[in-house]
Every structure is written in structure tokens, then in C-alpha cells.
Amino acid sequence: MRLIGLFVSLLAARSTKRKTSKFVKKEQDRLSIHNTRLKWATETDAVVLIDLENVRGKSNFDLTHQELLRQTTQWVQMNELEDKVTFVVDHGSLHTAYYLQEEKLSLVFAGPRMKADDVLARDIAFFEKNAIVVTADNELMSRCRNAMSNSEHDIEVAFIQPIKFISDLKALDDKLARKRLEAEESNDNPSDTETASSSDDDDDEISQELANKIEEEIKIRGAMYETEVQMRTKRNMNTPKKRRKLEKRARMLCERLAMKGGQKLDHLTAINGVSDYDKKFQDEVLSQWQKLRKNATRREMTGDRILLAEHFRRQIENVAIEEESKEEQSDTEMNHSLRYVQHIQNMLGNNVATSMGSGDIKQIGDDSGSEGGNGPVRLVIVSDTHGYEESLTPKGGILPRGDILLHLGDFAIDSSVKKQRSAIERFDGWLARQPHRTKIVLRGNHDPFSVQFPISGANFFSRPKSIAIDGKLTITLVPYSSPRNLSSSWRKLPMFCDILATHSPPHRILDKCYNGANAGCSAIRGKVERMIAGPPYLWLCGHIHEGRGAEKHAFGLSPRETLVVNGANANEGRATHIEAGPIVLDIDTEGNIKYVEGDEAMTKQMEKLGVESAANTEVEVVA
């Protein structure tokens, strides 16, 4: 028995040793992989893109934006990655970019309409270089790989886990701190760290009433977000009773937020005079909120991150302006980071459409004549042409000029595959003649799922997608689909958009068929009524030919009315010809809508609804 016990203990010891050696080897492999990637980045002149909020999340949000920037600057210098590193930050009041000369890196803020993931997926191939992305988001990794594989250049992407990145930053920071301490002790120089940190305590604290209101709004918004997540995840596992409870809770939270006047976050981060507070007061509150978060007992929520990111953006903006005033850039060949920052600034200044999704929105024509993104965007709307699109532009003419051409679906004909293919080719040629810089086509119920427009380069959408215009206005695109598929796609749609473009109209609004039935989509209407930040300013649709027209409606609990426009061009019933022309609308960044052009019946409806006319207003559009 003693021999058996000894044998068992030897086997256990060997197994433990084997497991330990495997663990050590695994850790060594991780280190070697990390070091190999950094070496690869240096040797191949690769860029490094850091998903800042993802990194902060892996530190349990213990790392502040400022602390992460400071530690990363040290890491950049140690690894000789100057002018190759870019932070991409969620939130901020603007989609903008800054270059810091002293730190030798750049920062991009996604703004209120996009996420850092969308910016990374859109721009990772911009550098035309190999890239390393610091993130743990598997979906973002997949999107980055797809973007690099679709690039014309032979470039690769690798990833570093944020936990490893954070441990490297901490190890380096501790090492440098010990060196500074040793230098101070040897020189007998007292540290001024405590003096610097104590100076912040002299600032006036924000009123307790305002702090309580902000805290309450953040908690309500967090609860609303969690409810939305529960409603759209594991949908098949949610019983009807559970879904009704979640929907009831969402409505109650919306009512509670409305009763609290829950717009403090928006007013504290807004710029350009659209806030209840001036910039000085905003800066004071944002600064104080950062201090309150250091001593907070509850976990950091999305509302906190909105405030903290805007405070960080304003600090970076001030530093960037000071550095720019000290020294003008005179480099004949710009580095990667500065070139990317100027690309972002030029893109926003030149009124270019940018994608929130895969980053493949194509622009048509020369944008050099555009005056910038501060004026209204002109939309030209057509729908349900069913192969008769030439009737909209007789004798080889063109549609009215505008920034974006929106075809809301049903461009194909009901015929054999050969005839349908020929009709789509004619439609592509017709699109190519149109003078709009961006052309968007939604799939209708008569259209195929996959279509290419090689001549016009138009963007075809058969799945829900949101795109941003100039980083200010957002359009959510919802092509035709079954209610079940639409319900499963809600996770891809935002909680707010400025413009909603769908093939189907909302249920009971501009959706009455010739037989008297209401054929609109209740699934889309339900989503709009549950949008946390309120319904869109403008809802464009088609599908029901008899429903062409305009109507104003207040969705959900919001007092704001949405202008719903059905732009179907075909005759009533089965399409045999075109009866109505295109509709042209202007919309600015404040959601103000002006009616520019349409047929006589549409003009009368717009006048009846009180929609301002812009017929005599000149708007700069791209030829």
C-alpha cells in the first residue's frame, strides 16, 4: 500500500510540474508574440491604432483618459513608435482629430453619431501600411481584417490584447517612477507632485442640485440601455410575457427621463450655441465631474463616459491649439499620424459622406467645389420606379441637383432573369448620368438581394445600415425585409437618427392600398417609438404607390413631430408607368427641413403641413 501511495504521489507531482511548465510556456509565448508584433511594427513601418475605451474597460475603468495618454506616450518613446500611434476615442461632441507634437501621436474622437469601432473599421486601410490594433473586441477584429483584405494594397493587421498592453504600461511607468525617485533623492530635490495635485482642490464645486440631476439621468439612461440590450439579445429565449415586461419597463424609463427633463448630458457636451450653458460653465462642470468620478462608489456608466470623453477632448483641443500657435508645420513629408489628422479634418470640411459601418461608402464626382459641412444637405428622393426610371428624366435629362440621391427601392422589373438583368444594367447607366456625389439605393420587395452597380458606383443596401454625413447628420437605411428579420436586426440600428430612410412606410401612415388595407410596417414603427433619444426629424419611404404624400406625426412619448414623406413615383396598383416626379428636401444639422421641389400635389401637402419652402434658396451642391 505504501508503494502504491508513493507511486500516486509521484504521478501527481509529475502532472503538476507538466501543468506548470505548460503555463510558463504559454506566458512566454504570449510575451514573445507581443514582442514579435512590436518588432514587426518597427521593421515594416506599421501604424498602431488603440481603441481607448476598450483598453480602459479592461482596466475596470480605473485608468483615466489623461493617465492612459501619459503612460502611452512613455510606451511610444520606449518602442520608437513616434508619429505612428493613434488613439481612437468613443464619444466627444465632434467627430474630429488632433495631433500632439510633444507626444508624437494623434487622437481621433468618434463624436456623438459614430463609435470608435466604426472609425477604426473605416480608416484602418487609409494608411496603406501594416497595422496593429489594440483591442479585445472580436467583432472589431473581424471588421478590421475584412477592411484590410479589401484594400488594393498588400497590407496586414495584427492585434494586441488590452490587458497585456495595460501591464506593459504599468511596468514601464513603475520603472520610470523609480528612476525619477532615485534621481530626486540623489539631487535632494523635493517632488512637486503633491503641490500640483493639491492645486486642483481650489476649484468651485458644481451645485449639488445639478450633480444629482446628472447622476439621476445617467442612471436612467444606463437602465434604458440595459433594457434595450435584454430586448434584442437572445430574442428567441425571451417569452412573450418577458418581452412585454421589458417593453413596459422601457416605456416607464422613457417617461421618467422625460419627467426629469433628462437632457443635461446633451447640454453639457453640446457646442455651437445649442446648449443651455455657456462654454466656461460647461468646462467647470466637466472638470468637476472627473474629480467626482475618482471618488465614486458606483461603476462607470455610458453617461459618465460621454462627459469624461468631452472633457478629455476639450483638454486635447486646447493643447493642440497652443502647440499649433507655437510652431507651424514645415515638414515636406508628413508623418503617418499628422497625415491622418489632416485627412479627417479635410474630410469633415469638404462635406463628404462617411460610413458608420463597413467604411465602403463611395462618392461620385469631384468634391473640390464644395464649401463645407455647415450648410444644409440636399436630398433628392425617388422610389418605386420599376424599370421606368427614364420617365423621370425624359430626353436624356438629369434629376434635380443635390448632395445625395436616395432611391428607396423597387427599381427592378418583374420578368425573366435575363430581362431583369438587362433592366438593372439600364438602371445603373441611368444612375451614372445623375449629378449627385453620393448615390444610395435600398432593396425593395421586387429587387434581388445582391446587385452591383459598376457604372454608377452607387451604394446598394439589402441589410439595415446607418451612415453619417459630415459626422453631424445620420441616415439610418432600412431596406425591405420580413418583420422577423427586421426584429433581429435592431441591434444594428442606433437609438437615434436624424433621417430614417425605409422602403416600407410606417404602419397606418401613408400606407393605405387601393383596397383600403394598411400595408405599412409595424416593426419599424415600433422601433422608432422606442428610440431612447427621440424619433428622427425626417422619415422617407415608398413601397405603397397610393400612399405618396407627406404627413407629420409624433412617435412614442416625444412631443417632436416627424415629417414622414412617401416618395413613390409609380402609378397606383401594379406599376405600368411613372406618375410623379422626384422630391427634393434640404435638412440642416439642427433638423430643420425645407421643401425645395416636387409635383403640384406634394407642394400643396407641404404647404398645408407648414413645411418651409426653400425654392428660392441657393444651396451649393456638387455638379
From TrEMBL:
Residues 181-206 are annotated as: Disordered. Residues 378-546 form the Calcineurin-like phosphoesterase domain. InterPro entries: Calcineurin-like_PHP, Metallo-depent_PP-like, UPF0046_metallophosphoest. Pfam families: Metallophos. GO terms for molecular function: hydrolase activity. PANTHER family: CALCINEURIN-LIKE PHOSPHOESTERASE DOMAIN-CONTAINING PROTEIN, METALLOPHOSPHOESTERASE. This is Calcineurin-like phosphoesterase domain-containing protein. It comes from Chaetoceros tenuissimus.
